[in-house]
Amino acid sequence: MNPLLDSLQSYPFEKLRLLFKDVTPPAGLAHISFGIGEPKHPTPELIKQAVIDSLGGLAAYPLTLGTPALREAIAKWVGQRYNLPHVDPATQVLPVSGSREALFALAQTVIDPKKNARGEPAIVLCPNPFYQIYEGAALLAGAQPYFANSDPARNFACDYSAIPDDVWARTQLLYVCSPGNPTGAVLTLDDWRELFELSDRHGFVIASDECYSEIYFDEARPPLGGLEAAHKLGRGFERLVMLSSLSKRSNVPGMRSGFVAGDAAILKQFLLYRTYHGAALSTVFQTASIAAWSDEAHVRENRAMYVQKFSTVTPMLADVLDVRLPDAAFYLWANVARTGLSDDEFARRLYADYNVTVLPGSFLARTAHDTNPGRDFVRLALVAGVDECTEGARRIVEFCRSLKS
């Protein structure tokens, strides 16, 4: 067996299963889950109909490169969404079978696992807390993860200025997540300027995970993207790729449809890797994805539902927890320290007493630089309907107040 597999940690939801294994929640309360970030809004009819209309495509092998029509639809969407003058569908866009697959495979493509002259492995720099795929991708590429802790003073954006120069010198790949999972933090133009300057100096690739980019709260202020930031700063896309997905934007996680866009030289090698990897997106879902990327009405309706939930739930929880509206995405990142419970004990007792699931923040982070930045936090995924989210928040408020009685 590949010995690098031994370096992988249990996934957060396996840790959650073990945390709850001896707990029996009250049978009289229906389970409410804020645990998994799986969209629960209805899949738009236009996408379901496009799947039905394209079922004839099951008779053909899909192209890893994707159909020209899909690449053109994605390039058009990227250009319009991020105010870019031109995105070449032939060289700067590659459809993928979900951003998760692509985030993992990208590290296998760009990392040179040979150790440097001092015998040190390459570094993949990740936010902390983080989406666990980043760490696994780094380890299985033969690299060493290095974690940049989030800073509560910066609305939980990472403080990249605290990273030593010798770490940047060994960095080959930087994962950023904006809007962030679990914190919802969005990188500013100044953040991007700093990262581009570091990439220019040290030559590392930036992979910008933007799968939450279409969940935000002000229609006039969509989150800044990596390619957009590069254009605003007068740059090209050298050493930069962004990854996105239809899962959250269009409520189709089961389609596993996304894309990578940016540096044409990286995408050329990434296509070569994925041709052998065999992860081509189904022809049926390629066709349905064209319909999804070509329509914004359902995306605005989707955002409106999240706005309603966040505007209802956030002030309810703010009465008992330290929580505020995130920059974007569909998570609330709540500090539970004032309850007197640790994040994992809070999650366990809330489930035991009120049959509500939240994810302990420490499960989503690593201890780095003498601290676990997820400690004392829980993540709530507001993915269910308004009524269910409101009822879940009401139970959390009741639970927190019961701790003081």
From TrEMBL:
Gene3D superfamilies in the cross-refs: Aspartate Aminotransferase, domain 1, Type I PLP-dependent aspartate aminotransferase-like (Major domain)
Keywords: Aminotransferase, Transferase
SUPFAM superfamilies: PLP-dependent transferases
GO biological process, one term: lysine biosynthetic process via diaminopimelate
Ranges of residues in domain Aminotransferase class I/classII large: 32-388
Entry keyword Transcription regulation: no
Database matches in Pfam families: Aminotran_1_2
Gene Ontology molecular function: any one: pyridoxal phosphate binding
EC number(s) reported in the record: 2.6.1.17
PANTHER family to which the protein is assigned, alphabetical: AMINO ACID AMINOTRANSFERASE, L-GLUTAMINE--4-(METHYLSULFANYL)-2-OXOBUTANOATE AMINOTRANSFERASE
UniProt name for this protein: Succinyldiaminopimelate transaminase
Natural source organism: Paraburkholderia caribensis
